[in-house]
Amino acid sequence: MRMMGDNGVVALSVHMPGLAVWNPDSIYEYYDNRDAVLERAREEHRIILRRTTEYLKLKPDLILIGASGHMLTNPETIFRELSLPTLKELTSLCRKAGIPSQIHCCGPEFDLVRIAAEETDLDSINPLEEPPMGDCNLAEIKRLFGRRLSLMGNLHTTEVMLRGSPEKVREASRRAIDAAAEGGGFILSTGDQCGRDTPFENIFAMIETAREYGRY
């Protein structure tokens, strides 16, 4: 944090229990040996909370809850059973410590946004991917949940950032700002990561648009 200064944000990352998107066998295990999965989730819960408690002592800029593709293998009924208890306690710890919490969950995310806004102390969520990679309409999410959550996103990773022109990036950036900036709490960003070959001029176009158009 001393090295970064005001040039960036320093986050420490934790995760949520759940069925692993990179391990299809975990889905079979949930239905074949549910008790073992539930016990493992409870143990993960304890470890995550201990780790978060130690992280908060270091006073990072935020706690990032990594959940890439989490809702693909954890639809709402499973999410409520395996993940939500941890998310509630984790975000409560952050709120009490005065340190923001943010979730990263690429892919379909609308249900997670709704649950987090209505039932947890989460502060912010990204990347709010639009179809076909996600299921988020930025203007709708802002209207429904923007008073409760800071929103971060959601320029299309491939069609806009990777394959688009700088002007296309500027247009998409302005649309995102128009959709979600009213009332504050919006962070213009990409819908997930920037691919390896994303042109630098496209990244700079996003940053320049945020500086020129995003002040309110």
Commentary on this structure:
- With 216 residues, this protein is an alpha/beta fold.
- Helices cover 51% and strands 14% of the residues.
- It is built from ten helices and six strands.
- It has a six-stranded parallel β-sheet with strand order 1-2-3-4-5-6.
- Helix 1 packs across helix 2, helix 2 packs parallel to helix 5 and helix 9 packs parallel to helix 10.
- It starts with 10 loop residues before the first strand and ends with a helix.
- The model has no long low-confidence stretch (mean pLDDT 95).
In short, what is this structure?
By secondary structure, this protein is an alpha/beta fold. The chain has 10 helices and 6 strands.
Q: Report the structural category.
A: alpha/beta
Give the strand order, joined by hyphens, for the main sheet.
1-2-3-4-5-6
Q: Could you name the ranges where pLDDT drops below 50 across 5 or more consecutive residues?
A: none
The radius of gyration is: 18 Å
Q: What is the count of DSSP helices, taking H or I runs of 4+ residues? A: 10
The averaged pLDDT comes out at 95
Query: What global shape is seen?
Result: globular
Number of strands: 6
Report the major sheet.
6 strands, parallel
The amount of beta strand, in percent, is 5-15%
Helicity, in percent?
40-55%
Order of helices and strands: EHHEHHHEHEHEHHEH
Distance between the termini: 28 Å
